[in-house]
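Box S1 | Example of a co-folding query
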Amino acid sequence: MLSGKFAVITGAGAGIGAATARAFAKERAAGIAVVDIREEQAEAVARELRETGCRAIAVACNVAKADEVRAAAARIVQEFGRIDILVNNAGITRDVMFHKMTDEQWNAVINVNLGGMYNWCRAVINGMRDQGYGRIINLSSGSVRGIPGQCNYAATKAAMIGFTNTLAKESARKGITVNCVAPGATDTEMYAQVPDHVLQAMLESNPMHRLGRPEEIANVITFLASERASYLNGQWILVNGGK
Ligand SMILES: NC(=O)c1ccc[n+]([C@@H]2O[C@H](COP(=O)([O-])OP(=O)(O)OC[C@H]3O[C@@H](n4cnc5c(N)ncnc54)[C@H](O)[C@@H]3O)[C@@H](O)[C@H]2O)c1
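Box S1 (continued) | Returned holo structure for nicotinamide-adenine-dinucleotide
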């Protein structure tokens, strides 16, 4: 149960983030901020949560922009009074072989995936330290093991692990845990961009011969956000069907 806890989920307008918002609502979170760069998607998810009786607000924000993140965090604290749980889920791909990669493709992925996590952690960490409680869950990826075309993406997802390990050690005494969830191939809009022949090869090499479902990733995130995970800190949990 997440009773009494106020959560922020970035990239919650679709995919794993939206599934996490629904899972948090089922666990009776006191309030959920549905953050996304796409305002309409965020509002649609927030409305759906409110219809189930959950207190939810949509917050339009580009996580790569520090000023937008600071303003969004201030608005959420004004609305909810505090932030207990932060899920850094917003992420993008710009897949291309490294020898063809442009500076734009490199920088876009670094700025959203890594910069977004930095901006949100920076915006909430002092509040969590002051209140002596926090749960931060960062969405890494199984791609850190290397998938052709993903040098930029894998670099961000591996960096998140080092960041998580370090912030976990810095923050534990203040009642804050920091962990990573690393999904394997999961059935969302992001994965819909993968070419068919790559998808077939992925499915064949997976022991379960299927993609993960967003809800299956959300279940692990929800566990990490809960009291049941109180002694779990600085970990990287691969959720990929055993690949
Ligand atoms: N789907 C997979 O196979 C997979 C595998 C491993 C890791 N992941 C990670 O899980 C997370 C969620 O992935 P998903 O598959 O649900 O993605 P998705 O593309 O389905 O949804 C991502 C959401 O993030 C939002 N977003 C994108 N850029 C943003 C920005 N700058 N600011 C705010 N919001 C932004 C999008 O609008 C979208 O609603 C990502 O961090 C991704 O890297 C996904």
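The domain at 6-239 is CATH 3.40.50.720 (Rossmann fold). DSSP finds eight helices and seven strands in the chain.
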